[in-house]
Amino acid sequence: MTNQNTARVVIVTGTSQGIGHAIAQTYLNNGDIVIGCAFSPLNKAPLAQKMLAENPERYFYYSVDVTSTEAIKQFVNEVEILFGRIDVVVSNAGKNVFKGIDCEESDWAHNFDLNLRSHWYLAKCARPALQKSKGVIVIITSNHAFSTMPGCAPYNISKRALLSLVQSLTIEWGPEIRTVGIAPGFIDTDGNQTWFDSHADGKAAREKTIKKHPVGRIGRPEEVGDLCLFLTSDRAGFIAGTTIVMDGGRSAIMQDEDDA
């Protein structure tokens, strides 16, 4: 899909599993060079090991704690030293911090360090390289940024803030750097399967969730990767400063029948 004559250098955070892993695979399939990172060390990241074995010259993996600004800075510096450029940043790393609005201060701080500050600081560190390449930033937020459920704070609050981060990056760093957001809904990852399995009847919980989606299924991780690839291509050059919801129509439902 890319129009570049040479492979782009793409940073993707949170690539050890789930959506991040699928995004990395999508860019590799497109012929790009992918530098992935996640909190897990390589010896505890089997999917990253497999990806490295299959793409020894185009995939690179780092263990990075993105709650540490110093770790982010070092990671970006190493990428620039090794490759001399950065064309795309997909800021995906994060996790569910579902503690409720009465959460402890430590939960609040950890959530915002991971689910908000890390995205801002990664973009900040990559800015000089992206300005040179006229690059693109994609920030992965969540449909919880638009509407949420009891007990999902403070996660949903940080995800809402990412909508404003996308806007501010766009209006302050454009036109050299284009920024867009993606807000996935229920995506079929191992983490979500663990949530299904936590119910007394995991199969029933899964079927109930599927029925809440007008498209009749939940999302696939590779679909998020495909959207990232499109949004970072020249074909999407007029899309900026906005966050696209991909939730199978879930957010179009005002009220579930079993909640009435």
What features would you highlight for this structure?
single chain; 7-stranded parallel β-sheet; 7 strands; Rossmann fold; 2 domains; globular; 260 residues; alpha/beta
Describe this structure in a few short sentences.
By secondary structure, this protein is of the alpha/beta class.
Description:
This protein has helices at residues 18-29, 46-54, 69-83, 105-133, 155-173, 190-197, 202-211, 221-231; strands spanning 9-13, 33-38, 59-63, 88-91, 136-140, 178-184, 243-246. It has two domains: 9-184 and 221-246, NAD(P)-binding Rossmann-like Domain (Rossmann fold), CATH 3.40.50.720; 188-218. Helices cover 43% and strands 14% of the residues. The mean pLDDT is 94. It is of the alpha/beta class. 41% of the residues are buried. Strands 3-2-1-4-5-6-7 form a seven-stranded parallel beta sheet, with helices on both faces. Helix 3 (69-83) runs parallel beside helix 4, helix 4 (105-133) packs parallel to helix 5 (155-173) and helix 6 (190-197) crosses helix 7. The protein starts with 8 loop residues before the first strand and ends in a 14-residue tail after the last strand.
